[in-house]
UniProtKB/TrEMBL annotation:
It comes from Brassica napus (Rape). The keyword Transmembrane helix applies. Residues 1-23 form the signal peptide. SMART domains: LRR_TYP. Keywords: Leucine-rich repeat, Membrane, Receptor, Repeat, Signal, Transmembrane, Transmembrane helix. This is (rape) hypothetical protein. It is a single-pass membrane protein. Residues 28-73 form the Leucine-rich repeat-containing N-terminal plant-type domain. Its main location: membrane. It is found in: Membrane. InterPro entries: Leu-rich_rpt, Leu-rich_rpt_4, Leu-rich_rpt_typical-subtyp, LRR_dom_sf, LRR_N_plant-typ, RLP29. Pfam families: LRR_1, LRR_4, LRRNT_2. GO terms for cellular component: membrane.
Length: 408
């Protein structure tokens, strides 16, 4: 009796004790995790969520099936494990981000996207010197981006999009030389965009849907994606001519003016250009015969573009979708546009311009259904051609357009 229980006891020790020796997450890391979960409303933690698996009767770095969303480092010479990543699911966690986060000094990833965290981002986050990714998108964070963020020299990704963050972008952010992604869209950020050309590894810059104003700053030539839509930015866009690696450019809904230069349309990898709803007066479309271009989408709706429609658009071999709605284009619709619609273009929106003349016969021959519109121009457009649906401008608005054409 006594010996068998002794045996059981030693078996128990053999099985359990060694693992509990190994399972030694640094005490203050455990306390920080406890503090993080305490700052979240328990009723917002659903039974299927990561946080519902945080069971503090087990060790955060040792448990299996517990502490989902937590990653640890294990060093051979060191029996102490440290928390290195917190990457939570989007379960709708409602609460504050505990200041204790600053004690997880080995943290490299903090990702809390699409929850209901609110209040300012605690300043203690900026003690996490090893952080490479700070992703807090889709929450209710408020307050400014404090200059403290510039202490996090290892950061590659900052994504604070879709929050209620205000204030200006700290100019010293350009000291974060490792940054590849800077995403601050959909906030209340104002002021001017500081010079960011120091961020020589930056590939993605998204600042859309804020209250930014002023002219374009110096930007790094490494950029592949640039989105500045829905701000109050103004002036010319020639500073962009150097961004030869751009794949996607969105400047829509600002106050940019002047010319959309041929440099931009012919960047070797550019695929998508959205310059809609600005005050551009011209677009330079050069012939690109024999040159490989990747431009697929051109949206220049709602500007003051004038003169004849750019004939050379037809030379862009990969172009699919064209939107030149609501400008001041005049003259005839080029016949080549009809040919392109038949074999490669998917959509063509030209409504609300001052285009004149009869619809080229090429358009009437197109057998497939075209997405597009020619309405609200000064065209003679046969009603049985689908793209002609909708009314044309009244004669009174068209006489000027006709006269100008007649003078040429
Ligand atoms: C090793 O363990 C000690 C605590 O015992 C801790 O302070 C230190 O940060 C650990 N080092 C690493 C590299 O995890
Ligand atoms: C961080 O750790 C220190 C030392 O372990 C502790 O005194 C402090 O209360 C912790 N901070 C927070 C905010 O939990
Ligand atoms: C261009 O931007 C406008 C305004 O932001 C948007 O409504 C439109 O869908 C965009 N065009 C394309 C082709 O994505
Ligand atoms: C439209 O009508 C005209 C004459 O009324 C006809 O010649 C032409 O083929 C029709 N076009 C289409 C696309 O039906």
């Amino acid at each position: 009796m006594a010996s068998s229980s002794l045996l059981l006891m030693s078996l128990f020790l053999l099985l359990v004790v060694p693992s509990s020796v190994l399972s030694a997450t640094l005490r203050s890391d455990i306390q920080a995790l406890e503090s993080i979960i305490r700052s979240i409303d328990p009723s917002s933690i659903s039974p299927s969520s990561y946080l519902s698996t945080w069971d503090f009767s087990e060790d955060p770095c040792e448990g299996s099936g517990t502490f989902l969303g937590v990653m640890c480092s294990f060093t051979l010479e060191n029996t102490t494990s440290r928390v290195t990543e917190i990457d939570l699911d989007d379960d709708g966690y409602d609460g504050f981000l505990s200041e204790a986060i600053g004690n997880l000094t080995e943290l490299t990833v903090l990702s809390l996207d699409n929850n209901r965290f609110r209040g300012p981002i605690p300043e203690t986050v900026f003690q996490l010197r090893k952080l490479t990714k700070l992703s807090l998108s889709g929450n209710f964070f408020t307050g400014d981006i404090t200059p403290g963020i510039t202490k996090l020299k290892e950061l590659k990704t900052i994504d604070l999009s879709k929050n209620s963050i205000a204030g200006e972008i700290p100019p010293r952010i350009s000291g974060l030389r490792s940054l590849t992604h800077l995403i601050l869209s959909n906030n209340h950020i104002d002021g001017r965009i500081p010079a960011l050309n120091g961020l020589w590894k930056l590939q993605v810059l998204e600042l859309g849907n804020n209250h930014l104003f002023g002219m374009l700053p110096k930007l790094p030539t490494s950029l592949r994606t640039l989105s500045l839509c829905y701000n109050s930015l103004a002036g010319r866009i020639s500073p962009l001519h150097r961004l030869k690696h751009l794949v996607s450019l969105d400047l829509s809904q600002n106050r940019f003016s002047g010319t959309i230069g041929h440099e931009i349309l012919t960047f070797p990898e550019i695929s998508r250009i959205n310059v809609s709803f600005n005050q551009f007066i011209s677009i330079e479309v050069i012939q690109v015969i024999g040159m490989e271009t990747h431009l697929r989408i051109l949206d220049a709706e709602g500007n003051h573009l004038q003169g004849p429609l750019p004939l050379n658009l037809a030379t862009y071999g990969n172009l699919k979708d064209i939107n030149l709605r609501s400008n001041m284009f005049s003259g005839d619709i080029p016949r080549i546009y009809g040919k392109r619609l038949e074999n490669s273009w998917r959509s063509l929106y030209l409504e609300n311009n001052y285009l004149t003349g009869t619809l080229p016969v090429e358009f009437q021959r197109i057998s497939k259904q075209i997405r597009g519109s020619l309405s609200n121009n000064c065209l003679q457009c046969p009603k049985n051609v689908t793209i002609c649906q909708g009314v044309q401008k009244p004669k009174s608005q068209c006489t000027n357009a006709m006269q100008e054409e007649g003078l040429k």
